[in-house]
Design a protein that fits this description.
The protein is 24% helix and 28% strand. It is of the alpha+beta class and 396 residues long.
Length: 396
């Protein structure tokens, strides 16, 4: 008599369930692939072994999951994300209602030399609160935007609206402007509202996040019974952006290309003209012009499209029309080499498609290729977001 037949598994349905579950692990960057026999293959990064084990247990409990294979997961601590989660855990459920924190860059990307951070806070309508706005950086530091020496008054009346950090043009002599600066990277802005002050003296404007979280935990424990509420917003600091005029000057080769007839006698090998340094006029190379992509994605963000608009206008300029350009896609080192090769090629094609469709740049002038994980921008951190990019260089 034949035994029971195995239950058929719908891989698409299982993957959809896994994606929903992964939202419960906001500090992990994980993609899952389901097979017809119910196996879930995981690639990406987790913050530690504890998160890896918890994630695997949760996925294994999904209906239809026969096994979870997490050998493709790498460990990458994300202290800024974990700090935001810890603050939310310390606060717990609140009767104050949702936090209202709005940034002047809705996508949360701030570029050095162009953007400053402006945050708008709104107090609950029925109670006065003390506001604490902190920026947790991925380097393990926390920076206190409110209160701080130039903005010591952090009490908000009921329903009050407060703007932290003015735009440069509006800044007075006693205002602090918050600009993107090195070290660039990811961070979390965390707003904590309390009906009583949490600290009796100002804290240093910057300090190790672990020290501050310890002090914050003690302050919240000592103020048992206070109404508290916390909220967070993601932020990312990036290197400088380039204008259309700057891109034209940099990408136009300094020495006109032409044919060479005959040979010039020389000793010690052929002579060559000195090459301009990358990033200078005529070099053809802009090391910081990197179109960044989200994890496991070839989608162009609003910030990426803005940078490509400047590039498209530059490539359409008369000075650059004779030249071709290399559009090279890159990935981080998370996942298999074969998968990353394909993902990097899709990223390069996304840039070429955008430049052609939006700016009319002929595809014949754009040489797209995918380099996968072979040329990491940050070899010291193979999983870094800096590695997920497309770089554009002038072909000579």
């Amino acid at each position: 008599m034949p035994g029971p037949q195995p239950t058929a598994v719908d891989p698409a349905r299982l993957e959809a369930q896994a994606r929903l579950l992964l939202r419960a692990f906001p500090c992990a960057e994980v993609r899952s692939v389901a097979s017809a026999d119910g196996r879930l293959l995981l690639e990406g990064t987790v913050t530690g072994e504890l998160e890896r084990a918890s994630l695997a247990r949760a996925l294994a409990a999904l209906p239809g999951a026969s096994s979870v294979e997490g050998g493709g997961l790498a460990i990458r601590p994300r202290p800024h994300c974990e700090a935001a989660l810890k603050v939310a855990g310390l606060v717990g459920p609140s009767r104050l209602g949702p936090v209202r924190l709005q940034l002047n860059r809705p996508e949360g990307v701030f570029t050095a030399g162009r953007d400053v951070l402006v945050a708008t806070l709104r107090a609950p309508a029925d109670v006065a609160v003390w506001a604490y706005l902190d920026y947790y950086h991925e380097n393990g530091e926390v920076y206190h935007l409110l209160p701080e020496p130039m903005a010591p008054d952090d009490r908000l009346a009921p329903g009050a609206v407060l703007r932290v950090g003015p735009e440069k043009a509006e800044a007075g002599p006693n205002d602090r402007v918050w600009e993107a600066s090195e070290p660039y990277g990811e961070g979390r802005l965390v707003l904590l509202l309390s009906e009583r002050p949490l600290f009796d003296r100002p804290r240093p404007i910057g300090e190790p996040a672990a020290e501050y979280l310890s002090a914050l935990e003690a302050a919240i424990a000592a103020a048992a019974g206070l109404l508290l509420v916390a909220g967070a917003a993601a932020a990312q600091e990036k290197g400088p952006a380039f204008s259309t005029d700057e891109l034209v000057r940099i990408r136009q080769p300094a020495v006109p290309l032409g044919r060479t007839r005959g040979f010039t006698p020389a000793t010690g090998g052929p002579k060559s003209e000195p090459q301009p340094a990358p990033g200078t006029p005529g070099s053809g190379v802009v090391p910081d012009l990197k179109i960044l992509f989200p994890f496991n994605s070839a989608e162009l963000s609003a910030e990426a499209r803005a940078q490509l608009d400047a590039l498209g206008r530059a490539l359409a300029a008369p000075e650059l029309r004779p030249f071709r350009f290399r559009i090279a896609g890159h990935t981080d080192a998370v996942g298999s080499e074969a998968y990353n090769e394909g993902l990097s090629a899709r990223r390069a094609r996304a840039v070429v498609d955008y430049l052609e469709a939006r700016h009319g740049i002929a595809r014949a002038r754009l040489a797209a290729l995918g380099l996968g994980e072979r040329e990491l921008a940050d070899p010291s951190d193979p999983a870094s977001a800096a590695n997920r990019r497309v770089e554009v260089r002038t072909l000579r």
